[in-house]
Amino acid sequence: MNDELLLRAKAIRLAIFDVDGVLTDGRLYFLADGSEFKTFNTLDGLGIKMLINSGVRTAIISGRTTPVVERRARNLGIQHLYQGREDKLAVLDELLAELSLDYEQVAYLGDDLPDLPVIRRVGLGMAVASADSFVRCHAHGVTQARGGEGAAREFCELILQAQGNLEAAQAAYL
Q1: What are the tens digits of pLDDT across the range 30-48?
Q2: Where are any strands of DSSP class E within 106-159?
Q3: Residue 132 assigned to a binding site
Q4: 9-172 — its CATH code?
């Protein structure tokens, strides 16, 4: 693992995730009645839970609004959920003020152009392997996994490893 990424990850106190293309594969599924569903990866979910249990706060910022995301966030224990917010940088600033954190204490995982301002501003801005190429070029790092296929787990484990908490988080399941 890259030493610079580990150094950046060591300071993280808040991890923020985009949804479509990060916690999901990016596809949108609509039923005939207009309702929507998404598929989430259980590996990602456990990674987020391990991160929360280690004391790192978590948030979701999504430009879209759907009850499925609210349910997933609640099930995982994600403390801060912002949906229907396209200006993600404005949300980041609100969160920093509320939590008394600095940009360097925040990690963000995204995949597309609306995520780029936050990726470039935070201490650890990462893109998933399936992210837009321009976004990947401007991120501090890129996961090996694609969005919805374990990328969030990889991101969480990077933070846990940098903070010396990965083995304890894994051992909790032995």
Answers
A1: 999 988 889 999 999 999 9
A2: 106-110, 124-127, 141-142
A3: no
A4: 3.40.50.1000
